[in-house]
Every structure is written in C-alpha cells, then in structure tokens.
Amino acid sequence: MSQTNLEKYHKRAEIAEREIEKLKRDIQLLQDSGLTMSNDMENVDTDVGKLEQENIKLKHRLAILKRAVEAESSKNNAVPSIDSNTLISIQDALSHLFKEAIIATYPDLPDPPVTIAIAGNPKFGDYQCNSAMSISKLLSAQGIKASPYDVASKIQSNVSPSPYVEKLEIAGAGFINIFLKQDFVKILLSSLVKTAKVLPPVTEKKRVVVDFSSPNIAKEMHVGHLRSTIIGESICRLLEYLGHDVLRLNHVGDWGTQFGMLIAHLQDKFPNYSTESPPISDLQSFYKESKARFEEDTEFKARAYECVVKLQKFDPEIIKAWQLICDVSRKDFQKLYERLDVKIIERGESFYQKHMETIVKDLESKGLLEEDEGRKIMWGEEPNVGVPFTIIKSDGGFTYDTSDMAAIKQRVEEENADWIVYVTDAGQSVHFQTLIKCAKRAKIITEKHRIDHVGFGVVLGEDNKKFKTRSGDTVKLSDLLDEGLRRAMQTLLDKERDKVLTKEELKIAQKSIAYGCIKYADLSHNRNHEYVFSFDKMLEDKGNTAVYLLYNFTRIRSIARTANVSQEELKKAAETNPITLDHPKEWKLAKVLLKFPDVLQKIVKDLCLHYLCEYCYEIACAFSEFYDNCYCIEKNQLNEVVKVNISRLLIAEATAIIFEQCFDLLGLKPVSRM
Ligand code: ARG
C-alpha cells in the first residue's frame, strides 16, 4: 500500500466523520421538532430510526477506515532498513504485510484476525499465515460463503511485494505458506559480524522504575530475596538494552517498629556506640535478643516505642543508632551484589517517611480513608471487595501499605515513571493488586502507566520442602554461593580442565559456572512456579543448563581459533565474503538467530525470562545440528587445518554474537576457554 492509499483512507475517514456529524445534527433537529409536532410523532420516529441505523453503519465504516490508516502508518514506521545490524522483528514485518493484504481483500470485516506462525516443517515454508480459516468463518456468519482456500487465494493475491518474502504457497485447507528471502538474512548476519554487536529492536523509550531485591535490615536475606535479585537484575538489563531509562531501586525494609527494639537494645548493650563501633556483626542474633526482651519486659517495650517515635521524628541521636544498624546489614547485602554483579540503588522505606505523612493527608482530604476499629483503611476498587490497605494503624503508626502508597506517588510524580515493576514472591500479589487499585482510585496512576507485579514461586529443597539447611535453619546466601563455587571447581576438575587451563583461567571459569548456574537455574524456570534448588541438576552439562550453554559458546568461539582466524580478521572477512545459507542446517540456524527480537518482544509483554533461556537452548541445539552437518574447517590426517569455510565461520561468529547478547541479559559471563 502506498502513500496515496494512506491519503485516500484519510480522506474517506474524514468524509465519513463529517457525515456522522451531519446525521447527528439531523437527528437532533428531528427529535426537537418531534417534541412540538406530536401529531406526526410516528413518522419522526421512523426517520430517526433510519438515520440511527445509517449512523451505526457509518461509524462501523469509520472504525474500519481508521484501522486501515493505523495499519498503514505503523507499517511506514515499523519496517527498518535491512542494511543495519538492528534485527527486524520478522513476526511484525509479516503481520503488517498480511494485515494490509487482508484489509485490502475484506475492507468491511471488522478486526480481521492476523495469525502468523512459524512453520513446523521447512517443506511448508518458513512461516505461515493461518488467517483464512477464521476469516472464512467470520464471512459465513455474515451470510457470505467462501471456502478457506478461496479466502487464502484472495489474500495471497493482495500481498504486496516485500523484501522479506520470496514466495507464497497455499497449502491444505487454506494455509498460506511463507518462504522467506535469504538475502536480507545474509546481510543481517554479515553486519552483525562486521560491527560485532546486535542492536536492539526499535522501542518507544520509557522511564521505568524496577523495585527488586529489597531485603529487610536485621532480618535474614533469604532465597526469596535471591530470586528477586536475580530476576530483577535481568529485567533491568533487558529494559536497559531496549533503550529504556531504568531506575533500579532497592526498597529495603529499614523502617518500622522493629527498629525501636533494635535501637533500645543497642543503647543498653553498647552505650558508647556513637564513639566505638559495636560488634553487632551478627545482627540476626542481636535482633532475636531484642525481640525476646520486647516481649517479656514492659519497661523495655515502652522505651522501644519511644525510640520509634523519636526515629520517625529524625532525632539525631536515634538516627545515628539506626544508621549503625543499617550499615551492618548493608555491608552484607553489598557483598552479595558484588559477587553476582548486581547494580542497585538503595532507597528503603525510611526514604518515604515525609511522603507518607503527605499521602495520608492527601487520601484523607479526598475522603478515601475509612475508620475501622481504630485503624484507617482504604479499599481498592470499591468498598468491601478484597482486602483493604491499612493506611494508619490503631497506634497511629504507618504500615508497609502506607509506604508503598507513598512510594508509588513519589515514583510517578517525582521520578516521572511511566512504568513500575515490583519483583517479589507471589505471596505478595494481593498486596500489589490492592496497591494498583488504590493508586488508581487516588488518581496517582492513570491508564498511561504500566504497573507490573513480577511474582515468583518459592524455592524448594531437593526434598520438595521449603529450602532449609539440614538443621532446619534458613540457608545463608553467602554459604550458598560458596557451595556453588566449590561444586563448580569440582566439576572442572572432574573434567580435568586443570590440565588444560591456566590457574587464572580456571578461576574465571569457576566463577562463571558457579554464579552462572545459580542465576540460570532461577531464570530458566517459569517464574510463576516453585522450583527445586539442586546443584547437581544445575551443574549438569546436558540439557537446558548454564553449563551446557557456556560450553556450547566456548566451542563456537574455538572454531575460528582452531582455524587461526582472529575476531578482527572475521570482521574484515565479513566485508568481502558473502554468507551463503544453502545447506538446510545453515538456513535453520539463521532463522533461529533471526527470531531474537521476537523473543525479546514476547518477554517484554509478560516479563518471563524463561523464554530467553529456552531461546538460548534453541540456539545451542540449532548450532550443534549445523556444526555436525556442515564442515567449518577440514583437517588432514595429521590434524592440520587444510580448508576453511569462511561463510560458515561467519555464521558461527554471528551465532556467538547473539548468544553473547543473550548471556549478557541473563547476567551470565561466558569465557573464551573453559
Ligand atoms: N522488603 C519486602 C520483603 O522482604 C519487599 C519489598 C518489595 N517492594 C515494595 N515496594 N513493597 O518482602
């Protein structure tokens, strides 16, 4: 469809809109006159009826025209030039192409379905358009008889020439098989190698706040927080890669009643805490002690409450004690973030104290708070449905709910967030649903904001029970990472890698495997499900595991090394040597690589990273098939390289580049030798 078509649609839409306006005026006139000329009421009614019918038809027509305009303009924006290393979304490109053809064929069909699927068998092309069956049904509902086959033929004849499509064939009951052109894929793969990177698909830039990790001061940082940290980090990486402006926030639990106990206990135990650093390295037992006192000792309890009040008023002495306590935890958290290469800014609940005071007044003045046995609560959508938020407790204190209301307002209004992502265990999903409803009711967020609660299931031990140490304690995260390191080294030694790698290389490989496998095990499971934490499983070198993928990657990179071709030489070779995709396994691998932007788009929709892991596994399998069937280098009996297939080395390199990008999004660190 051309620019003139677009203009034509605009014109037609304009005319229809004007006609509707005119009809509206006529109807009004008729109705007004009907009120005075009651003797002719019947005639007036039928005229109004007719005009209203006409109006409905025109509105329908207008909707169709508007859609055509929309399809046309998005097509004009969406198809990028093919000589860049920005991979195009082939799904989008084909959807646009067929949507256009379907609209041209059936302009009166409202919302025609456009379904593009990957073909299961190369005999039936690379992709398929499966819309003909449903369109045939829609037509027959309107009394129009057309077999799916006829529908498919008509659509096919209206498909414009495309730089992506070689040919179309109709098969079976009315499938349109789409055979892709190879040329644009060859160009894309070449430019990947030339620039050594893959640019993200073009996306509208958003300001995104990702609230993740968020452990609680003085309490255990448990595997749930580890999941939030790993998933959150990966979501941030993906959004940043797509070009969004991401604010990574650690909403640590650093405020509330428990700090009263902790501070009161600190004052008793270490009265010189302001001049000497007290040895509360084991903050957890310190917390337990203070809790026990709080429950038994009324004098202590009263003093603890006093401390909370003072803390919330920012009393300098109390703030000092509080900071001291927070620092102890903070150091622990930081160690973990460094080991896992996680970047995050701490902005805990305490940050919102002033904002909480403001939001409470705000909600009160809007009449959104309700008395409930001394508390002040707020309902989500409508009163008495679901669980309300407690905004003020009966003792006058604020709650987790209050701080989240204050935080969402601050993020929208001061951080200008368009999109907020919360990563916590699925157990908190009711909390976040209520938060979204309350924030809507309070007009803090509107339709233009996107809010996601990225929930996840619990981590289980190999006994399928909640993940615990043998003695039943919570597993310390640092112990868990240490154990990972130990096991990773054992795996390397079992494979006798110490005989091949230098000490330095061995260490790098150990970390890459240990942290990589912990992250990957988490990310590769559907986050909505619980998952069993098992070092044995995650360190397996077969199947969809980090170890398998990391080995696969090093193997790809080692091909060029064996052929004695450096990466620089590959870059140069890509300038002059064309890539060929004649072998079916070459073409199969190339098509898997081409899918990368579609995989990313799918993840952005529901923030499930296991799609990316499945994709990595698919790349690894397609590469293995390619490598087993297509010689990249040939050696003689003396194991000397006698022939190098440059095109295939380039395909391998393009694979490595996409693989590397995926690893980066998952937080995996591939190594060139392991
Ligand atoms: N500290 C909380 C917890 O450990 C998680 C906080 C999540 N973020 C939020 N804005 N509520 O469960």
Automatic annotation (TrEMBL):
Catalyzed chemical reaction(s): tRNA(Arg) + L-arginine + ATP = L-arginyl-tRNA(Arg) + AMP + diphosphate
GO molecular function, one term: ATP binding
Class of enzymatic activity (EC top level): ligase
SMART domains recorded: Arg_tRNA_synt_N, DALR_1
Domain Arginyl tRNA synthetase N-terminal: start-end pairs: 92-180
Source superkingdom: Eukaryota
InterPro entries hit by this protein: aa-tRNA-synth_I_CS (IPR001412), Arg-tRNA-ligase (IPR001278), Arg-tRNA-synth_N (IPR005148), Arg-tRNA-synth_N_sf (IPR036695), ArgRS_core (IPR035684), DALR_anticod-bd (IPR008909), Rossmann-like_a/b/a_fold (IPR014729), tRNAsynth_Ia_anticodon-bd (IPR009080)
Alphabetized CDD domains for the sequence: ArgRS_core (cd00671)
GO cellular component terms, A-Z: aminoacyl-tRNA synthetase multienzyme complex; cytosol
A biological process from GO: arginyl-tRNA aminoacylation
Swiss-Prot/TrEMBL keywords: Aminoacyl-tRNA synthetase, ATP-binding, Coiled coil, Cytoplasm, Ligase, Nucleotide-binding, Protein biosynthesis
Keyword rRNA processing belongs to the record: no
Domain DALR anticodon binding: 549-674
Coiled coil (UniProt feature): 6-68
The UniProt record lists the keyword Coiled coil: yes
EC number of the protein: 6.1.1.19
Subcellular location: Cytoplasm, Cytosol
HAMAP family cross-referenced by the UniProt entry: Arg_tRNA_synth
PANTHER family per record: ARGININE--TRNA LIGASE, CYTOPLASMIC (PTHR11956:SF5), ARGINYL-TRNA SYNTHETASE (PTHR11956)
Family: Belongs to the class-I aminoacyl-tRNA synthetase family.
Annotated protein name in UniProt: Probable arginine--tRNA ligase, cytoplasmic
Gene assigned in the entry: LOC107272768
